[in-house]
């Protein structure tokens, strides 16, 4: 269990680290582009494409962080009506369901990536599209891992040993 | 598995608190598979996230909003507004409405306004001898006001989903947004006069010192609102400028937030919100595509058309429907899911998509106050340690006034469209 929580912890830190870099680049590059556009009436060609893919990456890594911290949007209407134990059982079900959906999505995105590599599609100026699309399967895999971790925490809470984090 | 058992399972999963995007994803995968389409097509649709230029504004505005919420900006803002308007009858109430609007426009309807600003203003309102019930109702009702003003994310999201110009939506939202504030201010002044709330004398020195301490934040609404309304900036450009400017000001000028101690935490919080929003959005791209493929909006349209003949009846039912949706669902998913279904129907009844957007957003904004499930009632109950029932009662006069404004906005499209066509 200890190994599990520490893997979870370090995975979260790694994700946050990358997110900080991606957001920092987004803010600086987008601002520079505005300055270039409005003051020097010029602009860098690849910025637009870079920013749009930066959003994709931020979405997936931010989503993975949200999974790890239980911050995804949900409608939670019955959980405060039932006992702690039943809540934990609900969490086992919801996390397991979410994990299996994310595993299916990981599979689907690997297939998508495979076909993108095969047809050699490009994102910009000779750069293969799958370089930037790699975040889709990786992102869903991260979601799956976090949901599986959460499932084990919920199982432990449901059988009454240890608190749910 | 037949269709109805799938629906049944979805409802159970929803109720026990499964993350929404996984439910949508599960349904989408099931739908694609049963239509005989390879599930990798879901990913092709989802990849449209990287093909939607407007989305670039979302992480930047959310980050800027979180920075402002975590810094001392709210305090400086309230001081300034108090110095400017505190001398009128109901002055502090108007200050509450104005600062909450500003804050909601920047942070979205995420509850930050009630928790941070409401929590700060409620004790001050009481100290200035405003009635308890009125103050409680005011801070709760102010939690979503300002949703129509730039850089509100709800507007951006509606624009992306409905494929309507976001700049136009912001312009259309000016009069309805101001109308809401004016009506609630008028009510506050009435209460202020009737309850003989003492006024604070106007002092230039106070205005000056409050303006001086907020000097770096005053340009923000000017940059954004002025930039967007004058057409100098696009919304994405405004986002880039805002994020950069707010970061520099709060970290290096005011030093409210420490680069190492605070910023990673703010980035984490804001990007989790970005992730949660984009996860739902990406899946919704695929789901919407499937629904359109299966002609679901068309079927819905035929059904509605066979039952309702006049646009007015349609709008009335739409208002009611959206109040219920907004009461049980959070705003972003409600926009993402409901807009694609309603838009073609509304077009058929001759409703302008821009006007529909304003109706939609004002509806969802008000729904947060509708008992028994309106989210702001719960947030307020948590924050001020009062039962949800008494909050709902305190909010009632505000809710009724907002509903009146909603109906006026709904049935007189010119209120929203006048500025657009005038320009």
Q: What is the C-alpha radius of gyration of chain B, as a whole number of Å?
A: 22 Å
SS-based class of chain B = mainly alpha
Q: How much of the polypeptide of chain B forms β-strand, as a percent range?
A: under 5%
The number of distinct helices of chain B, counting runs of at least 4 residues, comes to 21
Biggest sheet details of chain A: 2 strands, antiparallel
The total beta strand count of chain B reads: 0
Q: State the share of residues found in helices of chain A, binned by percent.
A: over 70%
Oligomer classification? heterodimer
Query: Which stretches of chain B are poorly predicted, pLDDT < 50 over at least 5 residues?
Result: none
Lateral arrangement of strands in the main beta sheet of chain A: 1-2
Chain pair forming the biggest interface: A-B, 59 and 63 residues
Radius of gyration of chain A: 20 Å
Strand fraction of chain A equals under 5%
Helix content of chain B: over 70%
Description:
The complex is a heterodimer of chains A (165) and B (423). Chain A is mostly helical. Chain A contains 5 helices and 2 strands. In chain A, strands 1-2 form a two-stranded antiparallel sheet. In chain A, a hairpin with a 2-residue loop joins strand 1 and strand 2. In chain A, helix 1 runs antiparallel to helix 2. The longest helix of chain A is centred in the N-terminal third of the chain and has 39 residues. The two termini of chain A are 12 Å apart. Chain B contains 21 helices and no strands. In chain B, 76% of the residues lie in helices and 0% in strands. By secondary structure, chain B is mostly helical. Chain B starts with a helix and ends with a helix. The chains are: A mainly alpha (165), B mainly alpha (423).
